[in-house]
Amino acid sequence: MRDELTSRLSAAPVVPLIGENDAGRAVKTAEALAGGGLSVIEVVMRSSDAQKGMEAILAETEGLIVGAGTVLTLDQAKSVRASGAQFIVSPGLVDEIAEYCLAEDIPFYPGTMTAGEVQRAYALGLREVKFFPASLAGGVPMLKAFSSVFREMRFMPTGGVSAGNLAEFLALPSVLACGGSWLTPNEAVAAGDYSQITTLASEAVSIAQAAR
Hints:
single chain; 212 residues; alpha/beta; 10 helices; 8 strands; globular
């Protein structure tokens, strides 16, 4: 799974976030994203039924790599893994989640925003981390500074990334991929305007290909 995930992110280095509480809409949103060329999807655990939405996407779609985001505790990490999550993302770095994912060979992207957090992740054995919140944590200049010191680390900027600055982030060799919710606007999901989501995904793929 790790090799396949890396391969897909190399081809389309954008990870859309789905934060939908309704399983049916979550599945349709995932299908719309896949229609635009994005097949690695993060379902954020920010609502009571988000995990059910992730389970529905895994059960009712084919060809997607689906992970769980906003995972806050070790118990939650174990729960989403049991539900089928193929990678895990956290807003911050928690040692016990990192150690669990490393032991189980689960791709894990903990949030980091300081040199100390990146160094801690490196010491734990991680070589890929989330950079969050990217825009507030210093954006591209901060990533350039990190990359000059942590030469083996790769970053997934999330938080404040949009179609307007995606190319700037992806131009950095140390950026593995960018995550973002701009691809799944709440109003489009609520209105069932899945064609808009497909269009946004396709636009992001085009930007990524041009940047790389």
